[in-house]
Amino acid sequence: MATLRPVRALSIEKIRNLWRNANIALKDANGPPEHISAGRRFDAAYDCAMNCALLLLECNKLELEGQGHHREAMSFLVKTLGLKGKTADAAPAMTQARNATRYDATPLTDEAVVASAIAWADRILAETENWLTQHQPLALK
Questions:
Q1: What is the pTM of this model?
Q2: How far apart are CA 79 and CA 88, in angstroms?
Q3: Which strand (E) or helix (H) includes residue 99?
Q4: pLDDT band for position 3 (50/70/90)?
Q5: I want to staple 88 with a disulfide (CB 3.0 to 4.6 A). Which of 54, 69, 83, 108 is the partner?
Q6: Domain 8-140 has CATH 3.40.605.10
Q7: pLDDT of residue 16
């Protein structure tokens, strides 16, 4: 089971790097299907959201360790951003799908699943930007 633990200090540079990586990942997720596989685009969408989760942890001077850290990071993201409805409900499903492709070698070829993951990541990115604007505006400069 993953556990949260405090880190010594907040790093604006790390937050900015995670923010930049989240934006790059979403661009990659939106890459052309004729050149980038569905699995890779799904991974990029998931990575966008995971970078957002990690930057929220950093903003709160926290880090996760142990098994289940992706699930716990997504749960933290949902709670911190105050997500509700489909966006919140999708987080555990996205983590489960990611783990199935990563650890069980389940092929992901369903374009509808990829489109859903990209739309979800886009919403997470927008909500994270709103949160940063309110709570850590220096990270966006």
A1: 0.93
A2: 9
A3: helix 85-103
A4: confident
A5: 83
A6: no
A7: 97
